[in-house]
Amino acid sequence: MANSFETGQVILINKPLHCTSADIVKAIRNLVQVKVGHAGTLDPLASGLLILCTGKFTKKISEYMNQEKEYTGTITLGATTASYDLENEPGNFRDYSQITDLQIQSAAKQFTGTILQMPPAYSAIKKNGQRAYAMARQGKAVILEHRKIHIETFEMQSKRLPFIDFRVVCSTGTYIRSLAHDVGEVLGCGAYLSKLCRTRIGEYRLENALTMERAAEKFKTDN
Q1: DSSP letters along 11-73, please?
Q2: Regarding the domain with residue range 69-201, which homologous superfamily does it belong to in the CATH classification?
Q3: Which residues are within 8 A (CB) of 221 and not within 5 positions of it... i.e. 6 or more apart?
Q4: Between β-strands 191-201 and 47-54, what pairing exists: parallel, antiparallel or unpaired?
Q5: What is the largest CA-CA distance in the chain?
């Protein structure tokens, strides 16, 4: 089996909350004892599908990374955060009580199709040789440029304001945190991403992914 890892395998992992994508790569590398890379970072506060490539398949990472992605999660109205998610404490509280379902559906339509999106300052984009999130955490001003993305599907349901549950199908390079923030701007009450799960990358689905516990059992046995 170790030979097949070197030849190349795709491993689907259900990343839990609070660990980094790099943590998962390191753990799997220690299990299979060959080179391992991942096809698309998930933030520590996000869970869901992480595609790992082993051995010679690491050369194919960009192929998987560029495929369409699907996410589900929750947007919280009535406040903003510097990171657009719960890495930072919410502030700038505003009233959301008058927001209607019609307004929410209208906002979703505005972000469907090919659009220009501003990445969050707390992102891994490099600016002057330094990661944007590192500059932001140091309190430095981060000036990024809009990027063209495509959102195929954006569904929002508001059964329990201030929380909006959503599903989005989008191109690679889409920042769901920015999408949440921008929805808040359109609605005029502010918003941030409070929950995120990646459910699909191309044809690969979360329901077929291994938990880290199951992966540890499986690959220890295979080795």
Answers
A1: EEEEEPTTS-HHHHHHHHHHHH-S-EEESS---TT-EEEEEEEEGGGGGGHHHHHTS-EEEEE
A2: Pseudouridine synthase (3.30.2350.10)
A3: none
A4: parallel
A5: 61
Q: Please tell me which residue in 23, 43, 101, 165 is annotated as part of the active site.
A: 43
pLDDT in tens, 94-125: 999 999 999 999 999 999 999 999 887 766 66
Q: What sections of the chain are H helices per DSSP?
A: 2-7, 21-32, 61-65, 101-110, 132-137, 176-187, 212-222
Angle made by CA atoms 197, 69, 142, in degrees to the nearest 5: 80
14, HSE (Cβ side, Cα atoms, 13 Å): 12
DSSP 92: S
Kindly report the pTM of this predicted structure.
0.91
- d(CA 204, CA 150) in angstroms, rounded, equals 19
3-state secondary structure of 163: strand
Sign of the torsion angle spanned by Cα atoms 9, 69, 66, 131: negative
Concerning whether 165 is annotated as a catalytic residue, the answer is no
Superfamily of domain 2-66+204-222: Pseudouridine synthase (3.30.2350.10)
Judge contact between 84 and 180, C-beta under 8 A: yes
* CATH 3.30.2350.10 domain extents, the chain: 2-66+204-222, 69-201
126-182 pLDDT, tens digit per residue, is 666 677 666 667 677 767 678 899 999 999 998 899 999 999 999 999 999 999 999
pLDDT band at 91 (very low <50, low <70, confident <90, very high): very high
